[in-house]
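Task: complex structure prediction.
Instruction: return structure tokens for all chains below.
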Amino acid sequence: MSEITDIKDKAQLALENGQKAMANLKEATENNELAIKRAQRAADYQDVVNAYTAHAYYYRGQMQPEEMDIFWVRNRHDVTYNIYAGREALNNYYLESTSEFKSTKIRMFHDWYPEYPLENKRENYGVGDLVLMHQTTPYVEIAGNGQTAQGYWRDSGLTAELQGDGMPAGMIGVNTGCGGDLMKEDGRWKIWHFIAGVSAEGGVDLPLNFKYLLPHEAAPNHDIGMKLGGNVELQMKGSQFSPVSIPRNEPELPLPYDTWDDSRSYVKEKSVPCAAMEEMGGAE
Amino acid sequence: MKDYVNEINEQFNLNYTEYYGVHIDETMDRVLKKSEENLDESVCVLEESRVNLKQSSLALAYMEIQNLVSAFVYYYGARKEDILLEKFWAGRDDISYVRPGLSCADRDTLVSYYTAVRDRRVKRLEAISKLHPELENKEENIGAGETQTGCVCSPYVVISDDCTTARGLWSMQFFYGEILPDDSRLDDCIYERWAIDFVNEDGLWKIWRIRVYEDLAEDYTSVKPMMDMSSRPPRIGGVSPHGNIEMPMLMPRPGEILPPKALNLPEPYETFDYKLSMVKPIGRVVGKLGTPPQEFMHLPFVPHFDIFTGKPVTVQVEE
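Output:
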């Protein structure tokens, strides 16, 4: 009888061991599933921040074609960069027009500085351009399904470019709030919509003062934007500081979400390329 | 993973009826031994999963903390102190907010300070609306004549091994503009470093303590071209809304190199200890160089002792 009891005890113990092991593995499975989700979100965060930093990196080097190739969504037409909504408007501005501007600047450079031979080729594009922008204040929300993300950044720095007199344009100190929608495409985070609202800018050759903020209507790319098919209404108004101005903070921080909904996009307006171009007498 | 329940039942019943005796005992010994081995193995797997979870939690915490600081500065710039208190400050009472000329070392003091800040804003609106009648003196216009944008830079974050607290250091750049009641302007570019302690409350990271080190503040309206630093006088004292008690120690004179001061980067740690805190609240000292605005003077700022050690703190005030 005692042997039977002993065997039963052993069987019971083995059974309990098995149940404990099963419970351990169940908890381990849950832990690992949660760890995978958290690690994926952490990796997504890094990739999203990197994608935005890459935008600034290529902007600094005036290498927009490379940026478009690597860090912008390829498989969609509804891409947007500031006032340029839609693939056509974006390509017009980001690829063709920027190249044209840069080539024109090299020709201007030849006129102003004939003693410096500078071949008009792609490698020399960007002569006279200065873009020193720091990407700060990242705030990133990744969708619950991990397929899209929204981010807020604040960029601060200096920009300058050659002007008509051959001298660098008054160096501009810029402080900009930026909002971006990003999308995972082929396993990589890409920029989908991007918008920047200038909060403060002023000439560095003048006392850098909020009262020198450029109003929206005076933005230098206003007319160019119209001509290239940009939706100028999309451009955020500069928050010119005055005694009667009310503090505001744009764009807004993204909120947590599970799946994408167009209503949450940083860019809701559509492109108006045709109407704008017709008003301007057609694209040149 | 084997199904022990069925295996044991099958073997036990079969052996019990057919092989009662030593043989069945040996079989049970083998089953028991195997179950123990599998239990040990499952414990190892569980431990590994816990390590995985901890590592992934630490990685994700970095994102959550950076988001927290960015959002805090966003609402700080938008002058939404109510949101700061509701969403970003920890719920505990021993929160601290310390900056030059100001030391709030508990929730009540911080709330009192935020209330005073808002009252100041209300008074400014009253004054400005008289000077500029187009600006109506009403609730939604509170904050008129003030602007601030903040850039959160250079994050250095250390999260405790137990993932319950964290410490971090950021460089901040603020552009600040304010219309003063006499219609004069205060336009500043302010460079600061923020040392912050964080605590995780119910799975959410919250700000526990903030210590602000003001490195440089420039008055835009009185300076020459940016590149000519020699012509940019340091702004000491004056009309800065928060006082500048530490600025004589921090502000570089023309030609001087600003030392990093005694602000060390946080080092890795397992669990929080008050000695580790990035913030050591001290009593507010009112001196010649940094007189907080009159409307803040009634606030119950902490006395001159270290709240962690209880020992008196001696603060050197430049005469």
